[in-house]
Amino acid sequence: MTFAQYSEQRLLFFSDTAMRIQYASDLHLTFGRNFQYVLSGGIKPEGDVFVLASDIAEIQHLERYDAFWDWCSEHFKETIFVPGNHDWYGCWISIMR
């Protein structure tokens, strides 16, 4: 069996169980225009899992973005949020106390 045949066989084997991962980063939802852009269809949901990779929303105020988290829940099976440096803004003072 050649590598191409093996690869094709593997793709066929996994085609029913494949997971599609979609990602976004640097959404900066703290800016109203960005928040509205996302909620008005700016991101076309195409994955099963949505990975939010850095600089999405300030961790200390995540409740301000409930409409966004609801949108994620409605369009994806799972959402994974990986905070970046901007997501921690304002938290350092309370952490250091």
Describe the structure concisely for a colleague:
With 97 residues, the protein is of the alpha/beta class. The protein has four helices and three strands. It has a three-stranded parallel beta sheet with strand order 1-2-3, with no helix packed on it.
Q: Average pLDDT, to the nearest integer?
A: 81
Total beta-strand segments: 3
Order of helices and strands: HEHEHEH
**First-residue to last-residue Cα separation:** 63 Å
Tally of contiguous helical segments: 4
Shape: globular
Strand content: 5-15%
Q: Largest beta sheet, briefly?
A: 3 strands, parallel
Identify low-pLDDT runs. none
Radius of gyration equals 18 Å
Give an overview in words:
The longest helix is centred in the first third of the chain and has 12 residues, at 3-14. This protein is of the alpha/beta class. The chain has helices at 3-14, 32-42, 66-75, 92-96; strands at residues 21-24, 49-53, 78-82. Helix 2 (32-42) links the parallel strand 1 (21-24) and strand 2 (49-53). A three-stranded parallel β-sheet has the order 1-2-3, with no helix packed on it. The protein is globular and about 45 Å long. The chain contains four helices and three strands.
What layout of secondary structure does this protein have?
Elements: H1 3-14, E1 21-24, H2 32-42, E2 49-53, H3 66-75, E3 78-82, H4 92-96
Provide tags for this entry:
3 strands; 4 helices; alpha/beta; 97 residues
